[in-house]
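User: Could you go from structure to sequence for me? I need the amino acid at each position, not a summary. Structure tokens:
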């Protein structure tokens, strides 16, 4: 993509974050209100919904759903607190849920029967492609948190079925890879496209957070959930869904669930080319074996046919340095990106601080603008590409195999979703993946 086209596209994004244009009422069924249904009312659901209501006060929350009733009460109280910070009495204008409070594994089926314009999906990641499918078939615009797929079967569904389905119905889909909406990162990518660091040679992207994620889930930091889990076997599906962040069948592991943000930024910087080959490794510190079966460190090195290499690694290990470099190395300089600011060193140095408006706020403004004004807006493909890279890297790291990335889409039959899942289902033992126990299938 040339500089002129790229600047035009990113300028449109940036302008939409500043001022929303006049509403096109026909896009929202004759009303200037956008009706939103929330699926997944945990910590991330609270955060994302807060960003939604900060982005635009001309919305209504008309339905909520979660696996557990206790989470719906916690969510309502949290959103009331956040809404009234924005404007006194705002919650009463915003909250139109009534009796549309749904729980359990089938709650999504009731949500898509409501008159919501948008369904926001912040559920446990293993459900994501199947929930997106239900929403699109029901004619709903979708906000889907990342990752949108954590295995090969779900990923193929996104590519082969859901991207064309959204396009055919002219539905808007926003994915939670929000770095693309931060204006300072947009400016950094503009400069990269303009040749300011020369030709891209390699990338180094890491995310070491210095702790094993055990209590960031919406459930395991709640007293009611901990009391319930204490009476359950860890082998039961309900227990593992409550502790989803520590298990690879529910989350996709850190490399897919969290690190996909970083991989998405790398893919954007590289310019759309997908990697050809990958080799990686991973493992778990023994102290985490009784917490979950996610790896506590994962590394993958990707090769591209253009000659670019991407070194990508993440870790969740105590007593280690927090370190998250996002570096794009070119023939004339190095671009370093972060939420705090961006800089180029080399022949043409440049730097910029972080913008005042968060990317998580800007992404919803752009989304609402596209819905109200009938703009084409389907971000499934770019997010699926990043999930594809993440899944290929994880599979290589789990097995220690050097492999062609295309194998994931062309041959893999990996599907983490259990058949006929119920909350009381007893699941087979799943040790932490290693080359001794985990096979490419």
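Assistant: Here is the amino acid at each position, in order:
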């Amino acid at each position: 993509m040339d500089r002129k086209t790229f600047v035009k596209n990113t300028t449109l994004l940036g302008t939409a974050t500043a001022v929303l244009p006049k509403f096109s009422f026909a896009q929202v069924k004759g009303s200037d209100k956008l009706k939103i249904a929330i699926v997944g009312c945990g910590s991330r659901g609270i955060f994302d919904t807060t960003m939604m209501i900060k982005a635009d006060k001309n919305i209504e929350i008309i339905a909520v759903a979660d696996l557990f009733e206790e989470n719906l009460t916690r969510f309502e109280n949290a959103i009331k607190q956040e809404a009234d910070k924005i404007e006194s009495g705002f919650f009463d204008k915003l909250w139109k849920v009534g009796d549309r409070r749904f729980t359990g594994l089938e709650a999504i089926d009731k949500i898509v029967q409501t008159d919501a314009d948008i369904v926001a999906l912040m559920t446990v990641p293993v459900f994501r492609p199947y929930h997106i499918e239900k929403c699109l078939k029901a004619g709903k615009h979708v906000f889907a948190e990342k990752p949108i797929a954590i295995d090969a079967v779900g990923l193929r569904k996104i590519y082969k079925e859901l991207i064309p389905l959204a396009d055919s119905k002219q539905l808007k889909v926003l994915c939670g890879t929000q770095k693309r909406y931060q204006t300072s990162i947009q400016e950094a990518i503009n400069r990269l496209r303009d040749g300011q660091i020369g030709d891209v040679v390699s990338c180094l992207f890491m995310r070491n957070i210095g702790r094993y994620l055990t209590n960031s889930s919406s459930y395991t930091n709640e007293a009611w959930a901990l009391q319930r889990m204490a009476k359950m076997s860890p082998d039961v599906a309900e227990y593992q869904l409550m502790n989803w962040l520590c298990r690879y069948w529910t989350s996709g592991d850190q490399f897919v669930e969290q690190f996909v943000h970083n991989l998405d930024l790398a893919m954007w910087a590289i310019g759309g080319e997908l990697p050809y080959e990958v080799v990686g490794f991973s493992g778990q510190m023994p102290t985490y074996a009784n917490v979950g079966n996610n790896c506590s460190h994962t590394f993958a090195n990707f090769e591209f046919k253009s000659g670019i290499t991407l070194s990508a690694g993440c870790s969740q290990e105590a007593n280690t340095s927090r370190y998250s470099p996002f570096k794009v190395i070119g023939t004339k300089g190095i671009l370093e990106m972060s939420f705090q600011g961006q800089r180029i060193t080399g022949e043409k140095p440049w730097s910029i601080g972080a913008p005042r408006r968060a990317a998580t706020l800007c992404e919803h403004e752009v989304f609402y603008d596209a819905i109200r004004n009938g703009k084409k807006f389907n971000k499934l493909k770019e997010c699926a590409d990043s999930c594809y890279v993440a899944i290929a890297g994880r599979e290589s790291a789990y097995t220690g195999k050097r492999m062609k990335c295309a194998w994931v889409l062309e041959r893999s039959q990996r599907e983490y979703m259990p058949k006929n899942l119920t909350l009381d289902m007893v699941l087979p033992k799943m040790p932490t993946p290693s080359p001794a126990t985990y096979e490419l299938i």
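One structural detail worth keeping in mind: The CA atoms of residues 84 and 90 lie 6 Å apart.
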